[in-house]
Inverse folding.
């Protein structure tokens, strides 16, 4: 009756050999292809460094103006622009400017990468139910797997640094981008699509003229969520060498510096709110003429 | 372009069965398997059954039937938005069914244009950019496309609204955009699937007039779908009536109103304003010897309503109906005309006794 009270598990030796074999296999893989993979990601490295250099080396008044201009262009709302200004000034006044700029540049690159990878995958997914059935569980895993777990293989492959951090963040943040692109395209009014078809549109013309424009508000919601999730990863990413607001937080946890933690935490919240309000206001502005109305 | 050597549309032995294994059941349907049986035994839906319609170039062909009778399915076979299970759809002599993807796309760009019940405008484009959509897809230069589009926008009465978005317009105006978009294509075939059904009655009559006016000059082959008999009678040079995917009667408005093929059609016809449809020939009696009609005459082809309007102004008595050459071909009086308007039997039994049975 022992099996009834104790789960009949694999014996310790075989389990150990199994884990060892997998680890060994992955290590061999890393040794063989690590360099090639690193080479593959080196353009990202350059992009990251360039973005960071731009954000940290440009004088702060210019950066502030650029951010305010973007906020105005996207939202056309003085309230949002004013909110951005106050947040940025407070961040600078409490001496967190450089870290904030590093974090913003990281989030920027992450978002660009998520868009560049996520939208095409979402488009393909919207065209094939089979692909959707395949990709959806993968996205579930990416979102529910504790992020520390996939930091391990990423670090094994690429070591500590910006690029592995970026990849970890993108893995965590890209699912809403893919899902909402897929959803947005699937929800496009069938009648409008049929009309485009009836006028002899090619599938590229349908995508460009109908599906993407009509899905754009949904895609914008995806971008918004992706940015929010990327920000949520900032502290974890700092554990593998990503600079920015995460590192002081980490230090604060290790040394129990309460105020340091709170200040940097609030700075993260501040830029999260800026990103969120600006991108949502932009999404809403897009929405203006896009609903289909009958009668 | 629309009228040069365009050979019209011919639909031959067209079958459409919805379901995963459609082609396996065509033979059974040909041999008399009914829609209900097909659905019950095999889980397939019979969409269209043995449709044969010839639509001459430059005519308005109306397809009429209750909701679910297969009208939308039928019109979508003409530009092959739906693939048939069997049969031929010849447009200008070319079988649409046999086209490959590229040919089909080119065919849709050059030969057909479509107007939809729910307008189906691009919500993110303004009126101008919606109107030139077909031209843009064809690859026409932007400045030229704008010229053409502006002309049609003006022609459908939307001048000044070019930069409005669809959701800023009323339903009637949106459908004008739909019409302009279709006409800008300058395709010989114009497909209209319940294009006016979503509009208020007044606006609908308005749009019918717009179409009739335009048709005088554009002379396109128009396939117009409606479930409204008044609309069908007003617009159609030819009318085909569908029920459960089958054509049960084809003919012009006189045929449909005076000689409905069965109860289904008779039911449609019952509510119609006969005075506006039935012509005096259907009511008149042959002229007899020694007849002395009043000095008025009515040309053949006049509707009863118009004839009454003429007669009501004159003295009592019989009025001659005259043919194109002025020769008398029959005689009517006010009582006969009034009888024909209110009492279908009166009009019909004199003209064609066999139909009285159907009414
Ligand atoms: N894709 C489809 N699959 C199954 N049945 C369909 C499909 N499209 C239409 N039908 C059926 O075909 C019949 C005719 O539909 P439709 O052509 O839309 O009618 P109408 O336009 O006259 O209202 C209906 O019974 C409908 O349920
Ligand atoms: Mg329909």
């Amino acid at each position: 009756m022992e099996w009834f009270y104790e789960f009949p598990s694999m014996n310790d030796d075989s389990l150990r050999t199994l884990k060892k074999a997998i680890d060994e296999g992955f290590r061999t893989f890393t040794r063989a292809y690590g360099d090639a993979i690193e080479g593959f990601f080196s353009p990202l490295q350059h992009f990251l460094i360039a973005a960071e250099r731009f954000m940290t080396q440009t004088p702060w008044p210019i950066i502030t103006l650029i951010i305010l201009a973007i906020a105005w262009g996207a939202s056309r709302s003085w309230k949002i622009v004013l909110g951005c200004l106050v947040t940025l000034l407070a961040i600078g006044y409490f001496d967190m400017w450089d870290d904030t700029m590093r974090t913003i540049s990281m989030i920027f690159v992450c978002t660009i990468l998520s868009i560049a990878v996520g939208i095409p995958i979402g488009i393909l997914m919207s065209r094939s139910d089979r692909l959707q059935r395949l990709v959806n569980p993968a996205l579930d895993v990416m979102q529910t797997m504790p992020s520390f777990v996939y930091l391990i293989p990423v670090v094994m492959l690429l070591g500590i640094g910006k690029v592995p951090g970026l990849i970890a963040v993108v893995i965590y943040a890209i699912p809403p981008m893919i899902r909402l692109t897929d959803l947005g395209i699937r929800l496009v009014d069938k009648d409008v699509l049929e009309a485009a078809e009836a006028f002899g549109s090619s599938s590229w013309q349908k995508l460009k003229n109908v599906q993407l424009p009509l899905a754009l508000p949904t895609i914008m919601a995806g971008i918004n969520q992706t940015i929010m999730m990327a920000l949520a990863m900032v502290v974890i990413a700092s554990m593998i060498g990503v600079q920015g607001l995460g590192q002081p937080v980490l230090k604060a946890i290790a040394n129990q510096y309460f105020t340091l933690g709170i200040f940097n935490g609030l700075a993260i919240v501040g830029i999260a709110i800026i990103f969120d309000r600006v991108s949502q206001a932009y999404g809403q502005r897009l929405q203006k003429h896009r609903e289909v109305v009958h009668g | 372009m629309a009228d040069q050597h365009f050979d019209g549309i011919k639909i031959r032995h067209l079958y459409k069965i919805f379901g995963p294994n459609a082609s396996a059941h065509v033979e059974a349907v040909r041999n008399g398997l009914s829609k209900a049986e097909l659905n019950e035994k095999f889980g397939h839906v019979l969409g269209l059954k043995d449709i044969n319609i010839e639509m001459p170039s430059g005519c308005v062909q109306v397809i009429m039937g209750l909701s679910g009778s297969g009208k939308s399915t039928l019109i979508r076979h003409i530009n092959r938005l739906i693939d048939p299970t069997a049969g031929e759809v010849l447009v200008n002599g070319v079988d649409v069914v046999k086209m490959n993807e590229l040919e089909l796309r080119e065919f849709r760009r050059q030969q057909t244009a479509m107007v939809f019940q729910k307008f189906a405008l691009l919500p993110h484009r303004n009126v101008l950019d919606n109107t030139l959509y077909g031209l843009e897809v064809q690859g026409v230069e932007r400045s030229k496309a704008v010229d053409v589009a502006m002309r049609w926008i003006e022609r459908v009465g939307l001048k000044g609204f070019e930069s409005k978005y669809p959701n800023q317009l009323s339903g009637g105006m949106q459908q004008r955009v739909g019409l302009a978009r279709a006409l800008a294509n300058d395709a010989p075939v114009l497909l209209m699937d319940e294009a006016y059904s979503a509009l208020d009655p007044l606006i609908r009559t308005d749009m019918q007039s717009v179409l009739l006016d335009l048709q005088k000059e554009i002379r396109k082959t128009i396939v117009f779908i409606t479930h409204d008999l008044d609309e069908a009678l007003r617009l159609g040079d030819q009318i085909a009536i569908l029920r459960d995917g089958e054509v049960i009667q084809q003919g012009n408005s006189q045929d449909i109103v005076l000689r409905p093929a069965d109860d289904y059609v008779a039911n449609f016809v019952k509510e119609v304003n006969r005075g506006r449809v039935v012509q005096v020939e259907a009511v008149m009696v042959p002229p007899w010897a020694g007849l002395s009609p009043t000095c008025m005459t009515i040309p053949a082809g006049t509707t009863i309503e118009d004839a009454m309007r003429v007669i009501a102004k004159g003295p009592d008595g019989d009025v001659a109906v005259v043919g194109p050459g002025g020769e008398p071909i029959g005689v009517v009086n006010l009582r006969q005309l009034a009888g024909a308007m209110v009492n279908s039997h009166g009009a019909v039994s004199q003209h064609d006794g066999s139909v009285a049975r159907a009414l």
